[in-house]
Amino acid sequence: MWRNVGPFRGGRISAVSGAIGQPGVFYAGTPAGGVWKTTSAGETWFPVFDSIRTVSSIGAIEVAPSDPNVIYVGSGDHDSFFDGMGDGMYKSSDAGRTWRHIGLERTEQIPAILVDPHDPNVVLVAALGQFRASSDARGVFRSTDGGATWTKTLYVDDQTGVATLARAADAPDVIFAAAYLHYIAPGAGQWPVPDTARTRTRLYKSTDGGLTWHEILGGGLPRLAGCISIAVAIGTNAQRVYLIGDFGLYRSDDGGTSWRHMAADDKRIANGQGGYNCGVYVDPKNPDIVYTFNVTAYKSTDGGNSFTGFKGGPPGGDDPQVMWIDPTDGKRMLMGYDQGAIVSFDGGDTWSSWYNQSTEQVYHIAADNSFPYWIYATQQDAGAIATRSRGDLGAITPLDWKPVPGWEWGTILPDPRDPNVVFSSGLGISKITYPSEEWIHVGPDQDPSLKLRGVSLAPIVFTTWNGRRELLAGYQYLMTTTDGGATWTKLSPDLTETRATPRDTSVSSFAAITSIAASTVTPGVIWIATNTGIIQVSRNHGRSWSDVTIPGIAIGRRPIYMSLEASGFDAGTAYAALDAHYRGDYAPSIYRTRDYGRTWTKIVAGLPATLPGGAFARVVRADPKRVGLLFAGTESAVYVSFDDGDHWQSLMLNLPITEYNDIAIHNNDLIVGTYGRGIWVLDDFAVLRQLNAAVAADPGVAHLFKPSDAVRVRRNVMYNTPFPREVPQAPNPPDGAIIYYSLGAKPSSDITIEVLDARGSVVRHMSSAPPRAVRETARPPMEGFWLAPGRGLPANVGLNRANWDLRYDPPPAFAHSFEFNGNPGVTPMAPEGPLALPGLYTIRLTVGGKHYTQPLTVERDPRSRVSRAAITAQHALVMRLYAGLEATWADFMPVARLRGAVTTLAAGDTASEVGKAAKTLAAKLDSLAGDSLSDAREVWQPRPTVWSFVDLNGEFAFDLTLQDNADHAPTQAMLAVARSSCDELRKLVERWRQVVQRDLTTFNRLLSSHGVATLATLATREQLC
């Protein structure tokens, strides 16, 4: 299963809405992450759209004002650099629990929805339509039956869509709409130059609820161009209207007949970044309070005459995108930024956090070589970030991630030899040094004499050839540094220029290298690709280059992005994933060469040719340990090939539908970076390296795969109050060894896994049978969501995964408590079994009476600094305590059985000689056995002067938990407490022996003299601790 590691720093929000009358309920849509919901006013968010397996790009959300259970979602985000692809409208009638598709499949991008304030079945939808094709699926569509049928009520032409709808809740029949050109001809040539006379941006008005429309012209309006946003004020009979665009803010007080330019001398009050930031919103109670968007948000309290900053951070703002204001309460609002969704209940004075949403939009990922390793990523707008792959506190918490002073785009790359040095490209190349976290710009682009041109996703790659570390960077030239950026050298001429391949004459100065792959097999073999479609290879460290562009790929100004990957087994083999969607090609394109690019083979069998959310490929990666094992990320999914790309199959498992931008391989872990759902890790995918024809050819039998080496780490080292579940946390990888096995048929009986040490002793038993229920401690337990659910081994037909946490079988105990080091959903009961020593073990799977075995190596934590002898001594101490637990449990049982028999004899008889003797003996047995339902001793309570088996069992459990929290040689005090407990156990067993030899013998004589059957004489154990 894939594991989302966050790091819970929200990404861009494309749509927002709230439930009227439910203060804590809000919804947010993302460009490629589906729909998210909060019921806690932004304290926590969770995805609610993952059941939809076709699209994840959201353009609009609207909760029906009259029924908060009814939610409409329009798919396809129009602001994702024209990338967000949708397949129409979706509807939920149960507050987001389930969804159904309700048509408008061909609209592709839906940026606005209006639901009638009084009737949830009356809906208006604004559709932009396809960007790279003419289409009549554009305009305004209306439904009066909840989306069962649709009628197009506004249509401009097959290249112009509608992006904005606005109304006032108290005048629902008056609606304004804005349309603009949304089309570019497919091909490899020039981007179109905007014709300001033909932008087709138009303003329309309806006074009958969207049935009919008329265009608004003149009246003081400027020439409309590009994206515009509209707001209609409540309480004005739809007369007060605000409109904003690249040209500034305009206001009408007569329903759009006449307009005047507001805050004309304030250049901030206009669209930001060419319409990327576009929005105007008005307070529901006061038409003079208006909010506008640029790179930050602004607020006016005088009807738009003047503005002050409202919400945005330095240096340029947080890029506001969308806003929802409760029409019944102007202080309750939801805003969507490039950093996530935030909620306010006081009109914007304070906000909830966006550090609790794993909607990050990641461009590039990489992992360092530390332990646990750090995953680095460049993230849209927020900048670079890093998160640990495993946290020390049982989960990946906010303490385990950090912002990195790198650019939001570009490549980020830790030094493979020194994890304290990281390079990041984008706006130049930054060198970041830890632990100081200082950074310096070391890119060669600072030198004006070089006249370098790069791209925002500038590639950088490390090589280590002939013992020398080298950093390669792509511009129009390939640049190299061997001293960390202090000096740079050209390794090539301008690689974007070539005569070998026909090219479009419109190619201009934006052409640059966008991908670099360096061979790990033969030093000096370097592959590059440019954003114009060229591929070149050098076999001599850049002294000469060969144009090996894939035949049929037109070289042009319209970008084509390639991800190159060099084989780790053959220097002449390379792979290229082509993203040509900017040219109107949405099909997957992955190619392979085995002869240094002289010939290329397209390898896409098994990849869907089309998908509603996009099928084009973005990245391909080759496994460095198995020849022919490939991974691919597309606009919607992740795939795997076992035969060098000849055939592909899905590797989605539990992954969401989203855009997969990058893939990294770190030892046995597969890591993917998504544009909308953060970073995901497939822990220990090494089983895929073992899947072969022999296993596939005999599906009727069981197979145990060789487990990867396991590292001996502790689940959680905290001994303090744990983080509550409201604090965002990502799961750690499974503890210990991950064990994969396949079953050809459903077993007729329970399957088992046993772990044997080097001497052949079984140290852990696992079974598919339901685990035995154990009693919690008598103290009030914590809420149930903290506890790890008891599960047996999976026994499904096909591949199964289990894990051994590297601990011995849990020892028998009378009270099972929980330590401070808890984690929601995974907190085990204490006491746990001892942690196994580093060394060699055997995994034994038993299915239907047949055994299957594989070796397993347990390695010590590389962070541990103590000697092997110290760890061995600690293990011996812990095993002594473990033996004490087993001994007290085992000795309690015969005492309890005898006590039960004696108590039965004494029941109701306190006067006879036998009854009195039985009562006396029962009291002695009580003092020996103890109360199995009592609490364990608290740490602040004194040690008993007289021990029972139950008391001593709890003491051993307490000591075991304390002594196994770190790799450390036992201290004198540790040894003393174990010695003391074992001494008390010997004394207790001696007391029990005396009771058996004296008291029980005497009592049996009495029973015999009264003609009563005697009780069995019990043997006592000699083996203690």
Compact summary:
The chain is 12% helix and 31% strand. The protein contains 6 helices and 65 strands. Helix 3 packs antiparallel against helix 5.
Tally of helical segments = 6
If strands are numbered along the chain, what order do they take across the biggest sheet? 58-65-64-61-62
What CATH architecture of the domain at 10-186 and 198-230 and 321-344 do you see?
7 Propeller
CATH superfamily of the domain at 10-186 and 198-230 and 321-344: YVTN repeat-like/Quinoprotein amine dehydrogenase
Would you kindly provide a written description of the structure presented here, covering whatever features stand out?
The protein is mainly β. Among the domains are: 10-186 and 198-230 and 321-344, YVTN repeat-like/Quinoprotein amine dehydrogenase (Methylamine Dehydrogenase, Chain H); 727-858, no CATH class; 868-1009, no CATH class. 12% of the residues lie in helices and 31% in strands. The strands form 17 sheets. The chain has a 5-stranded mixed β-sheet, with no helix packed on it. It has a 4-stranded antiparallel β-sheet with strand order 1-56-55-54, with no helix packed on it. A 4-stranded antiparallel β-sheet has the order 2-3-4-5, with no helix packed on it. Strand 38 (460-465) and strand 39 form a beta hairpin. Residues 193-197 and 504-508 have low confidence and may be disordered.
